[in-house]
């Protein structure tokens, strides 16, 4: 019989103060955070899923009626089939940003930010859970919008390159989810969040070639469009459906795909460092 059998408390060994008990990835905590974020937007699915789908479908109807008459074709496809993938991707990106930009900001305003900072989650796990939930919402919105558009007369969503649809869909959603998380860290009130949405996200989305090809623009405006990362996301996503894109040939699309990955990694590292510093969160 050991000493610990005579004195049960003596056999208990606690780690020194400040030494983490959970090592590696806190899978349970990460999954719990992800489910919590997903349930948050699903509780108001009429606003977060169906509302954006209806708004995006209205865009399709309006522009198809206004610009798609007379059998107009763009990139060899009917106008409605040309604009549909861009609208799907635009809806995905905007909702990815909306979801992640609300996560930390709501906690700061409501005084519940401690509920996210106190659990045994590293900054990387906190960031992963929030971004994954934002991408989930983006995918749900994209699927809902695609289903509605597929039922609309004159729209074809036949896929030519599945890899492009999946890759650019995920890269675009991740890019806006990371940007939304960075905005959530920086913002101190909902007006700050709305300012980024109205003056950055919306203009970049609408001026990204969603409704036109940039070859129709003047050279100066073409250069501006090519400096817009949203243009590559939407055009690459459209390439997956139509097999053609105003980015260029297949090689140019591959280069754009790699560049988006690099951009997301850089944005992710910067956001992680800011989150780890505790700036505007632990002050």
TrEMBL record:
Q: Which residues form the signal peptide?
A: none
Pfam families, per database record:
ABC2_membrane (PF01061)
Tell me the ranges covered by the ABC transmembrane type-2 domain, including all copies.
Answer: 43-278
Residues that span the membrane, as ranges: 49-67, 79-105, 126-152, 164-187, 194-214, 250-275
How does this chain sit within the bilayer? Multi-pass membrane protein
The family assignment reads: Belongs to the ABC-2 integral membrane protein family.
By what name is this protein known?
Transport permease protein
Q: In which organism is this protein found? A: Altererythrobacter arenosus
């Amino acid at each position: 019989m050991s000493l610990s059998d005579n004195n049960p408390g003596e056999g208990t060994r606690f780690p020194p103060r400040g030494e983490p008990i959970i090592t590696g990835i806190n899978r349970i905590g990460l999954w719990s955070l992800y489910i919590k974020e997903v349930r948050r937007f699903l509780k108001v699915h009429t606003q977060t899923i169906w509302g954006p789908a209806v708004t995006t479908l209205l865009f399709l109807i309006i522009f198809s009626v206004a610009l798609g008459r007379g059998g107009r074709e763009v990139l060899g496809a009917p106008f409605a089939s040309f604009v549909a993938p861009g609208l799907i991707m635009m809806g995905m990106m905007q909702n990815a940003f909306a979801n992640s930009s609300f996560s930390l900001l709501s906690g700061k305003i409501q005084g519940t930010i401690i509920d996210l900072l106190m659990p045994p989650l590293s900054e990387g796990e906190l960031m992963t859970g929030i971004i994954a939930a934002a991408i989930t919402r983006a995918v749900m919105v994209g699927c809902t919008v695609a289903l509605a558009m597929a039922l609309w007369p004159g729209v074809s969503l036949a896929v030519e390159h599945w890899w492009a649809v999946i890759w650019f869909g995920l890269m675009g959603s991740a890019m806006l989810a990371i940007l939304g998380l960075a905005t959530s860290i920086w913002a101190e009130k909902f007006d700050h969040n709305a300012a980024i949405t109205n003056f950055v996200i919306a203009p970049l989305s609408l001026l990204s070639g969603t409704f036109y090809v940039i070859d129709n623009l003047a050279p100066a405006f073409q250069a501006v469009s090519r400096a817009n990362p949203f243009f590559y996301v939407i055009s690459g996503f459209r390439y997956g459906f139509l097999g053609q894109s105003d980015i260029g040939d297949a090689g140019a699309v591959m280069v754009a795909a790699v560049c988006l990955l690099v951009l997301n990694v850089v944005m992710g590292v910067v956001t992680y460092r800011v989150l780890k510093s505790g700036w505007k969160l632990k002050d």
